[in-house]
Write a structure and sequence with these properties.
Blueprint: H1 2-18, E1 22-26, E2 43-49, H2 53-69, E3 73-77, E4 89-100, H3 104-109, H4 117-120, E5 123-136, E6 143-156, H5 158-161, H6 163-171, H7 174-179, H8 191-215
Parallel strand pairs: 2-3, 2-4
Antiparallel strand pairs: 1-6, 4-5, 5-6
Helix pairs in contact: 2-8
Length: 217
Amino acid sequence: MKILKFLVSVVFVGVFLEGCTYAMKVNNLDEYYSSSGYLSKKISIGIVNNGQGQISEKHIDEIVFQLRAMNQFTEVQYPLSSKSKKPDFVIEIGPRIKYDGSGLNFLINWPGVYIFMPGWNGYKYTADIKTEIKYVSEKGQPVEKRYEMLFKANQSEFDRTWTVPADWFLTFGVSSLIGGFFVTSFDEDVQPEFFRYYSQPYAKFIANKIVVDLSTL
């Protein structure tokens, strides 16, 4: 009988803890759409990374992948090498990425703890991406463009929602009240998963914009 009670308790705790997590959901992936332009003839382009850090580089990798898949170019050089044939256009791409949390996360944590809100709603996070692009060729003056995108996500995991079971069993809301101040910031642990969700829509949007821009130059 004791073993049965122990097993039931283990199952109950497992279900309870599972209910304190919310799988990553990016809410506005369909918000950014750009139809692809058409180049009257294929050209060669070279891509220069004008961003900063590894995260920026990953965004550019995704853009290059989409550009190569479009069958609009004779060549997409990346990284651009001085030893390679000079492309028709050099395109400098500089993603500026800022990840952030939300002040609403405080309310989700407390008093949301009393209705398990971190588990069924998740915390709110954003990826604010400003992509600066410069087109350089020997035929004219450099042309600069800037595209802004804001992806919105909900997610929670136990390293932040542990105050929920603590409050229900021990601290009666105090842990979530204090913890609410900490969950308003961005959780760096979710960045890789967040990026995986929005990287393809982001890169496809920017690649389409690049083709549209080139068609007018």
